[in-house]
Structures are given as C-alpha cells and as structure tokens.
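Chapter summary example.
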Amino acid sequence: MITLALNILDIVQNSISAMATEIAVEVTESAAVDLMKITVKDNGRGMSQDLLSRVTDPFVTTRKTRRIGLGIPLLKYHANLAGGDLEIQSGEGIGTTLSATLKLQHPDRQPLGDLAGMMTILMTANPGIDFLYTHKTDMGEYCFSSREVMEYLGITDFSDVSLLTDIREMMNNNLEDIGASGFNGE
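The structure predicted for these 186 residues follows.
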C-alpha cells in the first residue's frame, strides 16, 4: 500500500464484508507526543477467537476468491516499521476494533494520503452503511457522519457527483484547518 488511506480502505472493506452497518474511522495525530493512531471500529459479525489469533498472518483470509489476506498484515508491518504496533479486539456478534499506532515523525511512516477521497468513495459505494470519520490533532478535532449529512440534506444516498465533490472539499478544508497530515506537503 502506498498510503495509509489505502490500507484503511482495505480494513474498512473487511468491515463491509462482515455485514457492518456502522463503521467508524478515527485518526489521531499528535506532534506533542509523536503519535499517530488509526482506529477502525465496526458493528459487524466479529471474529472467532481462532481467527483473531491468526488474522495478522498474510496466509490467513476469509475470502473465497484468493488465499492471501494482506490488509491487516500490511498495516501491522507498516505500524511496526514506524515504531508502533497493531491491536485487534473482536468477538463474534459484537464487531471488531482495530487500532494501529505509529510514530508520527518516524522516517518510515507512510504518508496518510487522501482520507476525504477514501470516505467519499466508501459512502458512494455503500449507501446502507453509516460511516463516521473523526480526525484529531493538537490543533483540534473534525467529525463527520454520513447518516447525519444524509438526514440533514434529506437524501438517501450520495449518488450526486457534485454533492460528493462539495463534501470532499468540505472535509479537506476542515482537515486543513486542524493541521491534519496531507496538508503540509506530505
């Protein structure tokens, strides 16, 4: 994966496959403590303890079309490479929470990438899922809920391309206002 956003997208796809109706993505960046934390939490069907114990192995996957699952193992690899780690909590019927920590200033930390673009793609392709996105920095916090936006606008999906362009621009403006990665040349 070239950016962490692409890795997050792959993890969120696992949540979608697990029949989640609510998926929360949270990114926390703190220069003060040299930390980046990425959390993906869903209310999907969760994992058995057996699968949970093996899920960071690239040769373990629940997919039927291929025998290799790279999303979680790659995120773990990149977290470890950048001085951090990966933690997963899951239980059958209660969902999954995955958290990766990385050193924010580590030279081997991947760039964060286009999170606003990732979120708009997810919302367009999955209208029945409420996507929550929170981004925290030392300068502030930005929160977005696809369900709240749809309710406010009185729409049932994000099929209007001009609306998606506006949402992406709004998200990027808010992320820039709080000094999120990606707006400082990263």
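To summarize the output: The chain has six helices and six strands.
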